[in-house]
Amino acid sequence: GMNQGFGKKDVQRPIEMMMMELSDDIQSTGAEDDVSLGSDTQGVVIELGDEMVFNYGSAEIRQDAIPVLKKMAATLQSERYNAFNFSVEGHTSDEAFSNAQFPSNWELSSARAAAVARLLESRGIPRVRLKVTGFYDNVPKYPNYDHYGQPIPQNRAKNRRVVIHVEPNFK
Is 35 in a helix, a strand, or coil? Predict the structure, then answer.
């Protein structure tokens, strides 16, 4: 406000700048259909579609998702965003799942969030700025069932996702 009052040019806020840079990253990698970018009251929200990042029942990041994640990590680890923390959330659908590695969706959702956090850390974001949470099916984005109690497969697929909340650190 003071810059405008004294006739200086507009100064872009860090969150606005981050949103523009991340949007460019997503578009330049052709990931618009698989990665969504938004904001909430805490900061920036990056949502990664499950099918782009992981194979079914796996927490290993798919090779074709790595360039997108690396490009976004390069933006997020830059010095101008050092005052931001990252909360990485894993979400699954309500479909029962288990295998030898993941006895339930709790472990799978947590492992997926941890895999994305490890990638961010490997690209220069300090682990003290990262938090990982596995939500299983507790926070669905879309209803899993219609009004007749029938499953909605498309919604279940959309509920399987990893969400990165980028929030300013006010310490």
Answer: strand
Q: What is the pTM of this model?
A: 0.89
| Structure-token pair, residue 86 | 């990252």
Whether residue 119 contacts residue 72, with contact meaning beta carbons closer than 8 Å, is answered with no
What are the pLDDT digits (tens) for 130-150? Answer: 999 999 999 999 999 999 999
Does the structure show a pLDDT above 70 at 37?
yes
Tens of pLDDT, residue by residue over 42-63, are 899 999 998 999 998 999 999 9
User: Taking phi first (over 0 means left), then psi (-120 to 50 degrees means alpha), and beta for anything else, what does residue 164 get?
Assistant: beta
CB 136 within 8 A of CB 92: yes
What is d(CA 20, CA 24) in angstroms, rounded to the nearest whole number?
A: 6
E strand map for the chain: 35-39, 44-49, 84-91, 130-134, 161-168
Contact 159, 140 (CB under 8 A): yes
Crossing angle for the helix pair 66-76 and 105-122, nearest 10 degrees? Answer: 60
Residue 58 main-chain phi, psi, to 5 deg: -120, 150
Could you identify the residue written with the tokens 């509920």?
Answer: 159
**Would you state the structure tokens that stand for residue 11, as one six-digit string?**
């100064």
